[in-house]
Design goal:
The complex is a heterodimer of chains A (about 220) and B (about 450).
Chain A lengths: L1 H14 L12 E2 L2 H7 L14 E3 H11 L1 H4 L18 H6 L15 H4 L3 H11 L10 H14 L8 E3 L3 H5 L8 E2 L35
Antiparallel strand pairs in A: 2-3
Chain B lengths: L1 H5 L2 E2 L8 H4 L5 E5 L2 E6 L61 E3 L18 E3 L12 E6 L9 E4 H6 L3 E8 L16 H5 L2 E10 H7 L9 E6 L6 E5 H5 L4 E6 L2 E2 L9 E3 L12 E7 L14 E2 L5 E2 L8 E6 L5 E2 L3 E10 L5 E7 L7 E2 L1 E2 L9 E9 L4 E9 L8 H8 L12 E4 L5 E6 L1
Classes of the chains: A mainly alpha (about 220), B mainly beta (about 450).
C-alpha cells in the first residue's frame, strides 16, 4: 500500500506539471475583523457607499483645519499642489464637459476641472489625505470635506449635505462627468466589445517602416 | 581625468543641472542639416578645438604593477569604482515642491546591456519611500463582494517565499517618461529625457496562484485593485486577463537580492508592459472586483488629455519606443572617425523585432544590430556602426515590435493626440551633432 501510495502521488505530480494545486500551511484565512480594518477603499459603485454624512457647513471648519495650509482657504493655491477648484463654469456643470480643457490649460487643470467620478474624491481623501497624516479623518469628516470642496468649486450650494443618498445628486453635477473616454488601444485587458475597456489594443499611431526618402 | 586622456567622447557633465546650469540651457529654433528643429544645444561660441587629434603620450615603458591592494571584505557590500561616482540618480530642480512626491532619473547614458543596477533604478514616489520591517508587512487578498472569493487570505513575506517562484526580466517605465518633450525639446541629456525607465530581473509568485489559492471566482471578478502601504496608499486597477496569462507577479526579488526600499521592499506588483504606477510598491492588499475602480491615479492623474478636451482613461500599455544612449545630449565627440551608436528599445506589447537608425534626421534608415537578450516586455540593446567625418548630423532610432507596431514620429504622434498630455510620449527622439562634436537634444519638425 505504501508503495502504491507513492506511485499515485508521483502520478499526480506528473499530471499537474509538478505544481501542486494547493499549498497547505502557506498563508491563513483573513478574519472578518481584519477584512473590515484593511478594506478601506471607497469603490466606484455609488449605490455601495459607506453609510456616512457630512455637510458643507461642517466641512468648512474641517477644511480650514486639515486642508487649507496646502490648498489655500479658497482651494486655489498652487503653492504645494495643483489647485482643487477653479476653471469651471455653470455651463460646464450643466453639460458635464469642462470647456476650459481645450485648448489644454497652462499648468494642468484643477481637481474639479478633471474629476469624472465623486467616489474618486471620497476614496482619495479617505486614503491619502491630509498629506503626511493620511488616515486620520473619519468617514463622516471625509464626506463633509468633500462636500465643502464641491461647494468651493460652485458644484453644490451652501446647504448641501453629502450622504449615501445625495451622492448621486453631486455626481450628476460634476463639471467633467462626461469628459472621459475609454476608446483607445492602451488597455491591456478585454475590450469594451466583450465587457472590458477600450478598442482591444489597436494603436492610433500607425506608421509605415519607411527606409528611404522618408518624411522626417 | 584618466578618462579624458583616453576617450574620444566626453560624457555629459554630471551635476550640470543645478539651477545655475539650467539657465545656461537655451531653447532655440534653428536649422540643422536643412531640417527645422527646436533644440536645447549647449551655449557655445563657435566651434571648439575638441575635434583636433590630441597629442599622443607614448607609453614606452611598462608601468609598474598596482602593488598590494585592499583586503577582502574591505567593502562588505561592494561599491562602484571611485572613478564612476558621477553616475547617479538625479532629480530635476523645481520638478516638485514636495520632495516626497517627486521623481529621480536613471543615468541611462552610462549603462551597458539592459539591466539597471538596483541602486540606479529610477524613483517615483507619491508620498516618500519607506523601509518597513518585513515581519510586520503582510499581503491581504480580499474581494469587493464576498461572493467573489471563497477564502480571503493573508500572506507574510515568508509565506510568499515558500511558494513556487519565477524570475523574469522586464522593463519598467513611468508613463510620464519623456513627458517634458511632448511640445518641444526641453531636457539637455538622456537621463532627463528618458530616465524614468529601468529594467530588472524580478523574482516572485504569479498572482494567479494566490488568487486561485483564495478561491477567486474568475468568471465574475474581472479586475483587481492593487493597494500600496505607503502614505498615499496608492491604488491602481489591473485587468484580470494579465493575471490569467500569468504575467503579473507579486515580487520580492530584484536583480538577485530583495527589492530595494525605494522599489517597494518587501513586496511590489510586477505588471509587465504596463506603466510604472501600476507596479504598486509596498504592496499590502489586492482586492478582486467586478468593475474598474476610478482611483485618483486613474481619474485625476495618469489620464491623457486629448485635443478636444476629453481625457483617455485607463491608458496603461507602454507602447513601442527606443532611444539612443550614446552619443546623446550633453556629450561631445572629440575626434572624427568611428563611433558606435547604441541604445535601448522596448515595447509593452511584446518583444522587439528590430531597430532602425537614421543619421540624417529620419530621411533614410538602416537596421541596427540587436546585441543581447531579446525578451518579452524587456529592454533590448542595439548597436550600429557609424563613421563621423565632422559634419552636422541628426541621430534617431526607431523601434518595431513583434506586432509590427512602428515607433511614431512626433508629427504622427501629435496628429493623433495633440500636445496636451504629458503621458505616453513614445515618439522617435533626435540628437543633433554640431560640427564642433557637441551633441544636443533637438526635435525635428
Amino acid at each position: 500500500m505504501y508503495r502504491l501510495g507513492n506511485a499515485i502521488a508521483l502520478l499526480l505530480l506528473v499530471a499537474v506539471g509538478n505544481v501542486l494545486a494547493s499549498y497547505p500551511g502557506v498563508g491563513r484565512v483573513a478574519t472578518p475583523g481584519e477584512l473590515a480594518a484593511w478594506d478601506t477603499d471607497i469603490g466606484p459603485n455609488l449605490n455601495a457607499l459607506p453609510v456616512a454624512r457630512g455637510s458643507v457647513i461642517q466641512g468648512r471648519h474641517l477644511y480650514e483645519a486639515h486642508c487649507a495650509a496646502c490648498h489655500g482657504s479658497d482651494g486655489r493655491s498652487t503653492k504645494v499642489f495643483l489647485p482643487l477648484v477653479g476653471g469651471i463654469t455653470t455651463e460646464d456643470v450643466a453639460t458635464g464637459r469642462v470647456a476650459g480643457l481645450s485648448p489644454p490649460p497652462a499648468g494642468g487643470g484643477s481637481t474639479l476641472m478633471l474629476l469624472p467620478t465623486l467616489t474618486t474624491l471620497l476614496d482619495y481623501t479617505q486614503r491619502a489625505m491630509p498629506f503626511g497624516a493620511a488616515g486620520t479623518l473619519n468617514v463622516d469628516e471625509v464626506f463633509a470635506i468633500s462636500a465643502y470642496v464641491l461647494y468651493l468649486g460652485g458644484v453644490v450650494d451652501e446647504g448641501f449635505v453629502l450622504d449615501n443618498t445625495t451622492a448621486v445628486l453631486a455626481q450628476n453635477r460634476l463639471p467633467n462627468r462626461n469628459g472621459f473616454t475609454n476608446d483607445h488601444g492602451m488597455w491591456p485587458g478585454a475590450p469594451a466589445a466583450t465587457g472590458g475597456l477600450g478598442n482591444g489594443g489597436v494603436p492610433d499611431t500607425n506608421m509605415p517602416r519607411c527606409m528611404n526618402h522618408c518624411e522626417p | 581625468m584618466v578618462a579624458d586622456r583616453i576617450s574620444t567622447l566626453s560624457p555629459a557633465p554630471e551635476g550640470h543641472l543645478a539651477d545655475h546650469d539650467l539657465q545656461q540651457v537655451q531653447l532655440s529654433r534653428r536649422s540643422l542639416m536643412g531640417l527645422a528643429v527646436t533644440a536645447t544645444l549647449p551655449l557655445v561660441a563657435g566651434p571648439t578645438s575638441a575635434v583636433a587629434d590630441p597629442p599622443v603620450a607614448e607609453v614606452d615603458r611598462l608601468p609598474p604593477a598596482y602593488g598590494l591592494g585592499q583586503p577582502v571584505v574591505a567593502q562588505p557590500y561592494g561599491q562602484p569604482s571611485q572613478h564612476q561616482l558621477g553616475l547617479a540618480r538625479k532629480t530635476l530642480p523645481g520638478l516638485s515642491p514636495v520632495p516626497q512626491n517627486s521623481a529621480s532619473f536613471t543615468p541611462l547614458q552610462g549603462l551597458f546591456g539592459v539591466i539597471t543596477p538596483s541602486g540606479l533604478h529610477y524613483e517615483r514616489h507619491h508620498s516618500g519611500w519607506v523601509d518597513p520591517d518585513p515581519r510586520d508587512h503582510h499581503l491581504m487578498i480580499s474581494a469587493s463582494h464576498p461572493e467573489l472569493i471563497k477564502n480571503p487570505m493573508i500572506f507574510s513575506l515568508e509565506d510568499l517565499m515558500r511558494l513556487p517562484a519565477v524570475s523574469r526580466l522586464h522593463f519598467l517605465e513611468c508613463s510620464g517618461n519623456t513627458g517634458m518633450e511632448r511640445q518641444r525639446a526641453t531636457a539637455p541629456t538622456v537621463q532627463y529625457t528618458h530616465g524614468l525607465l529601468s529594467c530588472s530581473e524580478f523574482t516572485g509568485v504569479p498572482l494567479r496562484l494566490l488568487l486561485e489559492t483564495c478561491g477567486v471566482d474568475f468568471r465574475k471578478a474581472r479586475y483587481i485593485l492593487a493597494e500600496g502601504a505607503d502614505a498615499a496608499a496608492l491604488t491602481r486597477t489591473i485587468p484580470m486577463e494579465l493575471i490569467e496569462r500569468d504575467e503579473v507577479l507579486v515580487a520580492y526579488g530584484q536583480n538577485g537580492e530583495h527589492l530595494r526600499p525605494e522599489n517597494g521592499f518587501p513586496l511590489r506588483l510586477v505588471v509587465p508592459g504596463v506603466q510604472g504606477v501600476s507596479w504598486v510598491k509596498w504592496l499590502r492588499r489586492i482586492e478582486v472586483g467586478e468593475a474598474p475602480y476610478a482611483t485618483r491615479d486613474e481619474a485625476l492623474r495618469y489620464i491623457d488629455l486629448m485635443p478636444d478636451g476629453t481625457h483617455r482613461q485607463y491608458t496603461s500599455v507602454q507602447e513601442v519606443k527606443s532611444v539612443i544612449l550614446s552619443p546623446s545630449g550633453g556629450q561631445t565627440l572629440k575626434r572624427h572617425g568611428f563611433f558606435g551608436i547604441t541604445g535601448v528599445a522596448w515595447s509593452g506589447r511584446g518583444k522587439i523585432k528590430g531597430v532602425d537608425i537614421s543619421t540624417d534626421g529620419g530621411r533614410s534608415w538602416r537596421e541596427a544590430r540587436l546585441t543581447g537578450v531579446v525578451l518579452d516586455k524587456c529592454l533590448t540593446r542595439f548597436h550600429a556602426d557609424w563613421q563621423w567625418e565632422g559634419d552636422e548630423a541628426v541621430l534617431q532610432s526607431r523601434a518595431i515590435d513583434e506586432g509590427g507596431h512602428v515607433q511614431p514620429t512626433y508629427t504622427t504622434l501629435r496628429a493623433a493626440r495633440g500636445t496636451g498630455s504629458m503621458y505616453h510620449n513614445n515618439a522617435i527622439h533626435s540628437w543633433g551633432i554640431e560640427q564642433s562634436g557637441e551633441v544636443g537634444n533637438v526635435q525635428v519638425g
